[in-house]
Design a protein that fits this description.
two-stranded antiparallel ribbon, 8-stranded mixed beta sheet, globular, alpha/beta, about 260 residues
Length: about 260
């Protein structure tokens, strides 16, 4: 079973990593639009193409203001406003403007709440996107590995993806970035391993983290049913060991099981 989120506002939900989170979905609610097609994505594979358009900047702003004003009137607090949902939020053509609107509304209604963006980093090299991401509190960018064979197998990026260029774009945030990494084990139907917890994956990934110098590293594993069979959660012991290893390398780490 896969999950598609309402658009443009959903929740709030309780995030394992962020707390009470009001979701902002810049993709249509009837399908998925993403520059990745991850085997583990809770929203399903990219074959679920939407028929409805993306919400406009104005629709996002008006819907968000309505929810924030209502919650403030009722005394219902929020920890974070999170851009997530049915695909990659930075693909929206008005993403920078929507970020500006969101920060303004946050400041008006819930100045203590954080603005977070969950992204796969495929647009992090675009100047307007990078500038917008520099303005949010939690700029959370995905980097599951730096092994291109594994990325092609599991993350299934759109043509032209180059992990070295992505790492360079992440370095350009000058530390104003949180790296989020999915760890898992298991095998696909043809027997191919999807385990990215071994040193052959970890050591080059840690070297990339030293180049990026993120403010935090979030490591996590599968939490819900996946659209692809054979994927398995990384064990608590494995995640804890990776977390301790990162701490030993000087990184701030959060672990979600």
């Amino acid at each position: 079973m896969t999950i598609l989120y309402p658009s443009p506002i959903f929740g709030p939900v309780h995030s394992r990593r962020l707390g009470v989170s009001l979701g902002i979905n810049l993709m249509p609610e009837d399908g998925k639009l993403c520059s990745f097609d991850c085997l583990y994505c809770e929203c399903g594979r990219n074959t679920q193409r939407p028929r409805r358009p993306r919400p406009t900047r104005e629709e996002v702003r008006d819907a968000l203001e309505h929810v924030l004003a209502t919650r403030k009137e009722k005394g219902e607090a929020l920890d974070v406003l999170t851009f997530a949902g049915n695909g990659e939020p930075t693909l929206h053509p008005d993403f920078p403007g929507i970020i500006s609107d969101t920060i303004s509304l946050r400041d008006r209604y819930f100045p203590g709440a954080k603005v977070s963006v969950l992204s796969n980093a495929t647009a992090a090299h675009r100047p307007a996107v990078r500038e917008a991401l520099m303005r949010v509190d939690n700029n959370i960018q995905k980097l599951d590995t730096v092994d291109m064979d594994y990325i092609r197998l599991v993350d299934c990026p759109a043509p032209g993806y180059d992990v070295e260029k992505v790492v360079e774009a992440l370095c350009a945030f000058n530390g104003h970035v949180i790296i989020q990494t999915m760890f898992m084990t298991g095998r696909l139907a043809d027997g191919t391993s999807v385990d990215n917890t071994a040193d052959r994956f970890l050591l080059p990934w840690i070297a990339a983290l030293h180049r990026i110098k993120p403010s935090q590293v979030m490591i996590y594993t599968i939490d819900r049913e996946t659209p692809t069979a054979g994927l398995e959660k990384a064990s608590r012991e494995t995640l804890d060991a990776i977390g301790e290893r990162l701490k030993g390398e000087g990184f701030s780490v959060s672990v979600s099981y």
